Amino acid sequence: MALKPSAGSRAADATARRCGVCGQESRQFLFRPGPPEQAPDLDLRPGEPVRGTMARWLQQCPHCGYAAPDIARAHPAAAAAVGAAPFRALIAEGGHPPLARRFLAWAHVLEETGALHAAAEATLHAAWVADDLGQTELACDWRLDAVALWRGGPPLDHEQTVRVIDALRRAEAFPDAGATAEDLARSSPPEAVAQVIALERRLIAAGDAGRHSVASALPPPSRRPHATMRGPRSPVGEGFFAKLKRLFRRG
Prior knowledge:
- It is built from nine helices and six strands.
- It has helices at residues 78-83, 85-91, 98-112, 116-132, 136-152, 158-170, 174-185, 191-205, 240-248, and strands at 9-11, 14-18, 25-29, 32-33, 59-60, 67-68.
- The radius of gyration is 18 Å and the shape is globular.
């Protein structure tokens, strides 16, 4: 049965894609999201309507299990990762939600090919799936896994560090979250980042592990493009929160 385009996507046209790992063909949907209309969360999960389209963010080969935004593209080392026992066990793990397994499969390939920050992002996406299903323990575990991947990769920028702080807070790792927030606050971050850190520190002090949006720390409109829609990079030294601040000043 053909799937209908979902809210937040410009189109969801099915097309034949040849898997970059096993070479088998399958029908896959191409996801082209529209802009989010609501503010992102502090961990930069996009607002609605993009928020509700996670099932379309990745394709997955029905033959070998390889998952990626476009399964026709694969790192040269991806085939070895997909064929190994840890990957096979991961995609067969019946205790994990199917959509979360898809994100974790992509995260595993990214980690095995050395893209640790991208693997952290994909692991965080699995935590978002667990959030939506009310599986708090899994969401906490995967947030901590994402933090380990972020910290295991290249040095983090301000935006990534804020996301680490939020992941730690949401996982109830309050001492680590507080220490990381304090370190970032001492680094003289841009004003918008400082405002988000201040909110995170208040939430940590209150033992609040709940979801909060960027709009709680910064004036609206606070919208973040989906990863597939990002345009040219911001000027050197300007992160996402600084870009948000620039947009607010136009209003």
